[in-house]
Amino acid sequence: MSENTSAEEKHLLAVYGTLKENFPNYFYYLNPLVPIFRGAIQIPYEMYSNGGFPLLFSSEGLKKIYVEIFEVTDRILQKIDRLEGVPHLYSRATIWIDEVSASVFLYVVANREPTGELIEDGIFRRKEND
To answer: pTM, whole model, 2 decimals?
Structure first.
């Protein structure tokens, strides 16, 4: 019996770093998918950068974070879980996002104090030499 990939369960995934369109990991994990939403959301996390990639840490109050939301399969999520180092570096949280009226997966850092440089505007940008 052939595998029917169209029967795979679909999930919404919010990305905010190297998985965004035109960033390096997008081409390996999400290409040719197109975001169903792109913009700033208000969530109880704040963004820090370690230089090469961003990290979201729990915050007191809502912070603005720029995300792109993709509809992905279980297979894609499993590959991204490996990329994100689940459960050692990141954990996959589920949050409600009003802008899409749905629960969405989001990779966040759990059980650690924030490290790196705070990105106050919530937008992870590529370095000049990337």
So the answer is: 0.90
**Domain coverage including residue 90:** 8-118
Least confident range from 14-23, 54-63, 65-74, 110-119: namely 110-119
Structure tokens at 46: 């704040």
Residue partners of 18: CB distance under 8 A and separation at least 6 = 24, 25, 26, 52, 53, 124
Q: Is residue 92 part of a domain?
A: yes
Q: Is residue 128 part of a domain?
A: no
Q: What is the mean pLDDT of the chain?
A: 91
Q: How far apart are CA 99 and CA 42, in angstroms?
A: 10
User: Does residue 101 form part of some domain?
Assistant: yes
The CATH number linked to 54 is 3.10.490.10
Domain count, the chain: 1
Residue 6 phi, psi dihedral angles, 5° rounding: -70, -15
- Considering only residues 7 and 6, tell me which one the structure prediction assigns the higher pLDDT: 7
